[in-house]
Amino acid sequence: MRDDGFTLIEALVTISVIAIALMSILTLMSGTFNLNQRADSQSQATQLAQLQFDALKRVTPTTMPKNGQEEEDVTFNGREFRVRRSYCVTVAYCTSDQRSVQLDVFQGKTLLFTGETVFTELRVK
């Protein structure tokens, strides 16, 4: 009797090993895709926050609220975000002519960006 070719058991073992290897690769690719999506969302949230801070630069600080929060839903580059502005989080920076503003950007319930700055009005003499 000649031993040419593979037996049925050898073929099944080979197929099983290949299937396990492919499943591992697909799992790795899926994880990488999710990581890239998260990084892209964080990048978009950071850009949105920068635009929000830039818009606040054009507002006179004395017209900003002295406390409280404002929230709005924003679509930015095809993605849905919720932007929360909190005023005078750092009380020491809230005076008659300046305001502390904290900006949080969420996607769903996930916080992607948080930042705080102080706005003041400069006067030229």
UniProtKB/TrEMBL annotation:
Its main location: membrane. SUPFAM superfamilies: Pili subunits. InterPro entries: N_methyl_site, Pilin-like. Signal peptide: none annotated. One of its GO terms (cellular component) is periplasmic space. Pfam families: N_methyl (PF07963). Keywords: Cell outer membrane, Membrane, Periplasm, Transmembrane, Transmembrane helix. The chain crosses the membrane at residues 6-28. It is a single-pass membrane protein. It is found in: Cell outer membrane; Periplasm. This is Prepilin-type N-terminal cleavage/methylation domain-containing protein. It comes from Deinococcus arenae.
